[in-house]
Design a protein that fits this description.
Layout lengths: L1 H27 L7 H29 L10 H24 L2 H8 L9 H9 L5 E5 L4 E8 L8 E11 L2 E4 L5 E5 L3 E6 L8
Antiparallel strand pairs: 1-2, 1-6, 2-3, 3-4, 3-5
Helix pairs in contact: 1-2, 1-3, 2-3
Length: 200
C-alpha cells in the first residue's frame, strides 16, 4: 500500500494544477460539465500549459537573479507558482466563457458560428438589459425583466422583475409584487423586447 501511495503522490501533485484550474472554471462558469473522461483530458491539457508557464517563470527568475535575488528557486516555489497560475487560468477561462471572448473572435474570422455558452444562454447574455415576454403553455403572457434565467432550456426557473401580465393589448401589472418566479417547464417561448428609451 505504501508503494502505491509513493508512486501515486508525485503523479497527483503533478496533475493538481490542471484539476484546480478546471474546478475553479466549473465553479464560476455557466458551462455544462462534461463527462469524467473529458474532465480528465481538460485537466491534463491545463496541467501541460501551466507546466510550460512555470518553466518559463523559472527561466526568467533565474535570469533576473543575476542582478538580485529574493530567494532560491525550489520545488515549493514552483508548486506555489503552479497553484497561482491554475487559479488565474480557471478565473480567466470563466471570464472568457461568460463574455464570449474567444468564440466572438472565432466568429469574426469565420472559424465557427457557435457561442461559448450555447444559443439559450447566449441570447440572454447578449441582451441583458432588455425586457422579455414569456409565452406560457397555457396561453398567458408575462412581461418583465429577467434577473435570472435557467441555465438550460429544459429546466430551472425565471426570476422576473416588475412582472406584468399581457392580456390582449392591455398590460396588467402585478401590484405589490416585485419579483415573480416562473418554472421554465411552463414556458413555450421567450420574446426579447426592443430596447426602451435611449438604450441601443
Amino acid at each position: 500500500m505504501g508503494e502505491i501511495a509513493g508512486t501515486l503522490m508525485p503523479i497527483l501533485q503533478a496533475l493538481l494544477p490542471g484539476f484546480l484550474a478546471m474546478v475553479v472554471f466549473y465553479w464560476l462558469a455557466d458551462a455544462k460539465k462534461p463527462g469524467q473522461f473529458e474532465q480528465v483530458i481538460q485537466a491534463l491539457i491545463c496541467t501541460g500549459l501551466i507546466k510550460i508557464l512555470v518553466d518559463g517563470i523559472a527561466v526568467i527568475a533565474i535570469w533576473v537573479g543575476q542582478w538580485g535575488t529574493l530567494g532560491v528557486w525550489t520545488e515549493n516555489v514552483a508548486t506555489s507558482w503552479a497553484v497561482v497560475l491554475a487559479i488565474g487560468f480557471g478565473l480567466a477561462l470563466a471570464y472568457f466563457s461568460r463574455h464570449d471572448v474567444l468564440y466572438k473572435f472565432a466568429r469574426k474570422v469565420g472559424l465557427t458560428a457557435k457561442a461559448s455558452v450555447g444559443e439559450w444562454r447566449y441570447a440572454f447574455l447578449r441582451f441583458p438589459d432588455r425586457g422579455v415576454v414569456l409565452s406560457l403553455k397555457d396561453g398567458r403572457r408575462l412581461m418583465g425583466y429577467p434577473l435570472a434565467w435557467p441555465a438550460e432550456p429544459e429546466s430551472g426557473h425565471f426570476v422576473m422583475e416588475f412582472p406584468t401580465w399581457v392580456v390582449g393589448d392591455d398590460l396588467v401589472p402585478q401590484d405589490g409584487v416585485t419579483y415573480l418566479l416562473i418554472a421554465n417547464s411552463d414556458v413555450q417561448w421567450v420574446e426579447f423586447l426592443e430596447p426602451q428609451g435611449d438604450a441601443k
